[in-house]
TrEMBL record:
The keyword Ligase does not apply. This is Vitamin B12-dependent ribonucleotide reductase. Gene3D superfamilies: 3.20.70.20. Residues 749-849 form the TSCPD domain. Its cofactor is adenosylcob(III)alamin. Catalyzes the reduction of ribonucleotides to deoxyribonucleotides. May function to provide a pool of deoxyribonucleotide precursors for DNA repair during oxygen limitation and/or for immediate growth after restoration of oxygen.
Length: 964
């Protein structure tokens, strides 16, 4: 993209008066004399975003201008998230042109003011190339750039921050304040608490210290109040503690104990759902926790020896613990509640470019940015699918049917453009604290990364968990980082190296050599990755040579971030380093409506694998119907793995995710934001193995999430019931037996017939009641589920009906069967019960709403959609006077109640398909595959979110539960 001038090239004058040579910028995508805007077709669209739970309009702006090739989702998200100005006012942005111009012109002006360009013509080419890349979704800056750059508010460009805290009350209170200011701006922060003395040490006054776990409570409460990233349990906050801290066991157990509290309170009738009134009473829920382990501890774990916990004040060992036992406690906690994750301290600092200034002690909330305390990193991500080239029609020898290549040359030029722009942003950026601003300006940390890796691998016929897939991912990552540091060295020749470089020059050059050596040692696999490795090798040779001559402009260049909202802005199928979610997608249509489509990458993959057009058509049709490739006509079994996804019958194994991270890690300045998903059946030993293998494979950080580990009945429930039964046993041997009398229903009785769908499973429920005395029988009919499930539901409904007629209160059934978890489970078509953990869970929630008094079911935490909406508006679930009966008990409004004619048995309604509706790809996958994705609902629009690194992303409106 750009090159330094040489020979008679004109000089520019950098800020401070020093004459320098600027950058010559070459055109790659643009045409001289033609603006990028003039090469695309623009159209006007209306953006109306609703909360499908209640139909309310969340956002509306009509007549916005976008290119015709931008998807509905991308248009909605950019309009609602990134356009500035009050909606409805003349100052409100209404075109993508205004948004891109606001950002690009600010970057261009700063580049000219600070001597980056050799001439005004080069500045104009930079402007046009940057505009083209953003317009065509080739890359995107992180969200703070779109929020802030070019506006009157502070020009904050960074999304990732690292703070520090020392062992003093003044420093601890500063931590609370600084973290709050960062959260207020919508960003995230992380820090290491290991400098704070433990609860096993003494204060100067002679009393015992509180310990870091105690001070975490105050910071957690602050984060929960500010609600950075939305009211979810996974806020944009990271807390790290070293493994040799005397309070490490208490730190490991913090969230485990709180999760047990959540279960107990929920079972007692408290509202412990995400965003519920009572969830705020639970502590430590607003942060991701990580234990920082070192090589000494890991070697003690390997050998089964003791490991010393050290005083924070003197460094002396004050307690010895069994390393294997402590590591097992770490794995047990992660198994129980997904926290804490693990960070590998010696590995992190082995790749540290600035160790003479200070060690790396912490990370940002998603664990991809790791550098000095009190620093920040601004991010940008490239859309890898934009560089996949179809060579079928080319004149090259490889231009046979299905031939593809990765355009390494164009990719490198775009990386140069983006790195140049990102470095320019530090010249004008504002920062939330003075210390962060000073450190960032002195070290100029950048975080270039990519998205759509999963889609790229599938499109090129590579399984995500394969040597070929890992080789291509490693090659692209190596080329990206090598090109970034080469550009950094070229910038150093133009505008000078970063301020901290002189002190850290030897260490920085050593790390560059480590990257180059890793690139040379990497295994080449096929015709796709080999040319990329060759380009990366050339880049790293230039890095070593130019770095010795010029130094480097940036202490850090690359990370792999979650690419949540910006991934949707670029219309990426996959985020960050993640694989594809599933083979079917949910797509919104222009003018309203939606449709289910098979991933566009599937036909590309089949073509690459050599299938003929008619075979591709048949396989795609099979996927559209079944959601997977199993038994697809004509598809060879050895190709099944190419289509493995994050969810479904052929989901990628946990170690497959870890191995992919290991393939990319040696070629990154920072780390990788990724959570390794594990099935609910995974054991503690498997988590322990993954954490151990992460260290062996050279990762910097790792986190796992076991499905459903944060939900379910408490393990002690059965024992409690047995204890209560034992206490109720009469003390005497004499037993008086009372037999209930069955009260049968009359021949004619009122009834309610309800059609429902739970997790894609359709059914019908007929509930008949006594004329004057509540529910008396239930009939259940399941459609298209096979004889086993249908027969079991028939038997179950008979058993419940007989129980009701013998006097078992409906309330007892509701308390016993709600929250029971088994498949099918997931989204329902009932506005009052949007999510069900099983068919039984749904049935008894529906019966409670139809037949139990308000106060009874409210104590069980069961409310209608109207009541929940009332609670949001007034803070109370209580009904108005019209909904209260003469005895003062609120009743549910009757639904479709009709009394059959005398002597007529109630018949189920004619079998018609239950309405199915998905609002995101995650919900579509649940319906298609008949499974339940363990993810929260978006609090803005109500759709089910999906994972993006360590956070969750909403495809409906672009909201995230953590970093932007």
């Amino acid at each position: 993209m750009t090159e330094t001038t040489s020979g008679p090239a004109r000089s520019s004058r950098a800020k401070g008066g020093k004459a320098t040579k600027g950058l010559r910028v070459e055109r790659v995508h643009t045409t001289p004399g033609v603006h990028p805007y003039d090469e695309v077709v623009w159209e006007r669209r209306d953006v109306v975003m609703t909360n499908w739970r209640d139909g309310s309009v969340n956002f509306e702006q009509r007549g916005v201008e976008f290119p015709d090739f931008w998807s509905v989702n991308a248009v909605n998200i950019v309009t609602s998230k990134y356009f500035r100005g009050a909606v409805g006012s003349p100052s409100r942005e209404s075109s993508l042109k205004q948004l891109i111009d606001r950002v690009v012109r600010t970057y261009r002006k700063a580049g000219e003011d600070h001597g980056y360009f050799a001439s005004p013509a080069d500045a104009e080419i930079f402007d046009h190339e940057l505009t083209y890349a953003l317009l065509h979704q080739v890359f995107s800056f992180n969200s703070p750039v779109w929020f802030n750059v070019g506006t009157k508010q502070p020009q904050q460009v960074s999304a990732c921050f690292i703070l520090s805290v020392d062992d003093s009350m003044e420093s601890i209170l500063d931590w609370y304040k600084e973290e709050g200011m960062i959260f207020k701006g919508g960003s995230g922060a992380g820090l290491n608490l290991s400098r704070i003395r433990s609860s096993k040490e003494l204060l100067s006054s002679g009393g015992n210290a509180s310990g870091p776990v105690s001070f975490m409570r105050g910071a957690d409460a602050s984060a929960g109040t500010i609600k950075s990233g939305g009211a979810t349990r996974r806020a944009a906050k990271m807390v790290v503690l070293d493994v040799d801290h005397p309070d490490v066991e208490a730190f490991i157990e913090t969230k485990v104990k709180e999760e047990e509290k959540i279960r107990a309170l929920r079972d007692a009738g408290f509202d412990m759902d995400l965003g519920g009134d009572d969830i705020t009473s639970v502590q430590y829920q607003n942060a991701n926790n990580s234990v920082r382990v070192n090589d000494e501890f890991m070697k003690a774990y390997e050998s089964g020896s003791k490991f010393g916990l050290r005083s924070r004040m003197t460094g002396e060992v004050i307690e010895e613990v069994d390393a294997k036992g402590l590591f097992r406690k770490l794995a047990e906690a992660a198994w129980a509640c997904a926290d804490p994750g693990i960070q590998y301290d010696d590995t992190i600092n082995h790749w540290h470019t600035s160790p003479e200034t200070g060690r790396i002690t912490a990370s940002n909330p998603c664990s991809e940015y790791m550098h000095l305390d009190n620093s920040s990193c601004n991010l940008a991500s490239l859309n890898l699918m934009k560089f996949l080239r179809d060579d079928t029609a080319s004149d090259s020898p490889s231009g046979a049917a299905g031939s593809m290549s990765f355009d390494a040359e164009r990719f490198a030029k775009v990386v140069e453009l983006v790195i140049t722009a990102m470095d320019i942003s530090i010249c004008f950026a504002d920062f939330p604290t003075q210390k962060i601003g000073e450190t960032t300006r002195a070290f100029r940390q950048l975080g270039i990364g990519y998205a759509n890796l999963g889609a790229l691998l599938m499109a090129t016929g590579h399984a995500y968990d394969s040597d070929g897939g890992r080789a291509l991912a490693g090659a692209i990552t190596s080329l990206m980082t090598g090109t970034s540091y080469r550009r950094s060295a070229e910038l150093a020749a133009v505008v000078g190296p970063y301020d901290g470089y002189a002190r850290n020059a030897d260490a920085h050059q050593r790390v560059m050599k480590q990257h180059a050596d890793a690139n040379a040692a990497a295994k080449r696999m096929d015709d796709l990755d080999t040319p990329v490795w060759a380009a990366a090798t050339e880049a790293w040779q230039d890095v070593v040579r130019l770095g010795q001559k010029n130094g480097f402009r940036n202490a850090q260049a690359s990370v792999l971030a979650p690419t949540g909202t910006i991934g949707l802005m670029m219309d990426c199928d996959t985020t960050g380093v993640e694989p594809d979610l599933a083979l079917v997608k949910f797509k919104k249509l222009v003018g309203g409506g939606s449709m289910q489509i098979v991933n566009n990458t599937v036909p590309k993959a089949l073509k690459r694998l050599g299938y003929q057009p008619e075979q591709v058509e048949a396989i795609v049709a099979h996927i559209a119907e079944h959601g997977n490739v199993i038994d697809a006509p004509g598809l060879r079994q050895e190709h099944y793995e190419v289509f493995d996804c994050a969810m479904g019958d052929r989901s990628i194994s946990p170690m497959g995710h870890v191995r992919m991270m290991a393939a990319a890690q040696p070629f990154l300045s920072g780390a990788i934001s990724k959570t390794v998903n594990m099935p609910e059946s995974a054991g503690v030993e498997e988590i322990e193995e993954i954490y151990y293998e992460g260290w062996k494979l050279g990762l910097k950080a790792l986190a796992i999430y076991r499905d459903n580990c944060k939900v379910g009945q408490p393990l002690s429930a059965k024992k409690k019931e047995e204890k209560k039964a034992a206490e109720a046993e009469p003390a005497t041997a004499k037993v008086v037996e009372y037999r209930p009398v069955r009260k049968r229903l009359p021949k004619g009785r009122p009834g309610i017939t309800t059609s429902f769908t739970v997790g894609g499973a359709e059914g019908y429920m007929t509930a008949n009641s006594y004329p004057d005395d509540g529910l008396g029988e239930v009939f259940l009919k399941m459609s298209k589920q096979g004889s086993t499930l249908a027969g079991m539901m028939d038997a179950f409904s008979i058993a419940v009906s007989v129980g009701l007629q013998y006097g078992v209160p409906l309330e007892t059934y509701v308390s016993k069967f709600t929250n029971m978890r088994f498949e099918p489970a997931g989204m329902t078509d009932d506005p009052d019960v949007r999510m069900a953990q099983s068919i039984v869970d749904y049935i008894f929630r529906r019966l409670a709403l139809d037949f139990l008094p308000f106060e009874t079911r409210s104590a069980l935490g069961i409310h209608s959609a109207e009541e929940r909406q009332r609670h949001l508006e007034t803070g109370s679930y209580e009904p108005n006077e019209d909904e209260v009966d003469v005895e003062g008990l609120a009743q549910s409004a009757p639904r479709h109640v009709q009394a059959p004619k005398p002597g007529q048995q109630p018949e189920p309604t004619a079998a018609v398909p239950a309405p199915k509706q998905a609002h995101s790809s995650t919900e579509l996958v649940e319906m298609q595959l008949g499974l339940n994705a363990d993810a929260p609902l978006c609090f803005s629009c109500g759709t089910k979110m999906r994972r993006a690194g360590s956070c969750y992303l909403c495809e409906g409106c672009g909201s995230t539960s953590g970093c932007s």
